[in-house]
Amino acid sequence: xxxxxxxxxxxxxxxxxxxxxxxxxxxxxxxxxxxxxxxxxxxxxxxxxxxxxxxxxxxxxxxxxxxxxxxxxxxxxxxxxxxxxxxxxxxxxxxxxxxxxxxxxxxxxxxxxxxxxxxxxxxxxxxxxxxxxxxxxxxxxxxxxxxxxxxxxxxxxxxxxxxxxxxxxxxxxxxxxxxxxxxxxxxxxxxxxxxxxxxxxxxxxxxxxxxxxxxxxxxxxxxxxxxxxxxxxxxxxxxxxxxxxxxxxxxxxxxxxxxxxxxxxxxxxxxxxxxxxxxxxxxxxxxxxxxxxxxxxxxxxxxxxxxxxxxxxxxxxxxxxxxxxxx
Length: 327
Known about the structure:
By secondary structure, the chain is of the alpha/beta class. 36% of the residues lie in helices and 16% in strands. The strands form three sheets. It has a six-stranded mixed β-sheet, sandwiched between helices. A five-stranded mixed β-sheet has the order 8-7-9-6-10. A two-stranded antiparallel ribbon has the order 5-11.
């Protein structure tokens, strides 16, 4: 066989090998793109992380999330659910980009999720807020008698308890007024600590202490309300059209239990902004002014020297230490 014949065969062999390699590479790329397309077209991932919600158990959180997923799926938005008990697990899933929608704790959303569009807010008995208070197992005393007492609490964002002082206590008491117990994983666990006498008091919604034989020593009032969990968009797969579908489906969602539905209004986003403002240590203050009582007499006022009035007693909150973080 001649040298030219061998060279031709070598060129043809190399050509076939290169062609096969290019074809295999193109096939692999197409398969990869097809796989990514299938993943993009797959169900959206709906997460739940709301430790301050007064749901009594992990089963209740799972059942609520599954009912919401079923409502979204019936409207044409296919979703799968993921339940998270710890903020670090939820954040790890966010970093991996595997979460598209989330039912988030309002305090966590205010602290960490400032950029997440709020689609709706959960309701309890039709209301977007719950009434919070300080509850204790002790049979007597007021909030002032809780100084130095063991406080059970929930840390939605990790270790920060600023929402207790700046939101629930209007910034009039420091969190150091209490002796903080290690943070409980959820509201049910925090209440149980007081019931079992491992703690002396707990801040909780009224619904979380029903039937627990605990006594309220402080009512957070209207200004100290914390909103219910919010439904937010966290992934890029949720387009404007899908977000509109989610809002519509959430508005028609009804369930039994403590959290019974969602409300898709502008107030949903405003509720998170309000908590965020208070967390920064700038709570809204309501100054209470005492007006001296009128002096009723038949003697003309010009004949009387004005009496010296002792100053009125100020509300107890103004006598306590100022909040942390105020410049």
